Amino acid sequence: MFRRTMSVITGREPGSEVALGLQLKHAARRALANCTTQGYAQMDTTWAKEFDQQLEYAAALRLVNLLRARRTGEKVAVGPGADRLHAGLDTVISTMNEDPVLRAQIADEQAEAALLATQFTNLHLGAINHCMFDAPQAECQKELPADQRGTAPLIGACQPDRCRNSVITRRHAPIWIAEEDDLTARAQDPTLSPPGREAVLIRLAGVQRVTRALRQEGVTP
């Protein structure tokens, strides 16, 4: 099982054919083993489910610090989905406080992560925001026909300052502040065309909604 799992992982990486040949111990017979290598690395439903579960758990581990900050009453995120995030964290805290066994494990990261994974089953981590994906509320899905809407966010169509699934944490703040500074400087460029300046100012207004909220709520580094 370990070898098969490693093959599935490496099969998704650049240079995977060579790596898989080595993993399967038939590097010297690669010309005859290519079909086996490709089939062995194919993601099947069992492994896909296992990978999804591990991704959910990894995402939950990233939320543990937010949970602990929330336990002290801190507002840990801003953005259109922040209230949902806070409510979910509060639910996990209440569950742990009301259960004597869980209360005894209050500092147990694995116990916290397991509860968080259950509470936030559709959490997707991102560099500029986190997405608590709910298709009916997702801005990235609205332009798609109903039969083509997926079960995961479309990263290229994400609108983190507007989407009700979007939450922005202290970890994301430096990126938003840097973008605000960059857009402010670009807006003052005298060589910028009027349409270009208007586009920059529209984008700047969206970014400033986020940075203003970050500063007001103290969710900054």
In short:
With 221 residues, the chain is mainly α. It folds into three domains: 2-43, no CATH class; 46-169, no CATH class; 173-217. The chain has nine helices and four strands; from the N terminus they run ααααβαααβββαα.
Shape: globular
Tally of helical runs: 9
Radius of gyration: 22 Å
Bin the helical content: 55-70%
What characterizes the major β-sheet? 4 strands, antiparallel
* H/E element sequence: HHHHEHHHEEEHH
Query: Helix/strand-derived class?
Result: mainly alpha
Q: What is the arithmetic mean of pLDDT?
A: 78
How many strands appear in the DSSP assignment? 4
Task: Note poorly predicted spans.
Answer: 26-37
How many angstroms does the end-to-end distance come to? 42 Å
Tally of individual domains = 3
Percent of residues in beta strands: under 5%
Largest sheet: spatial strand order: 1-4-3-2
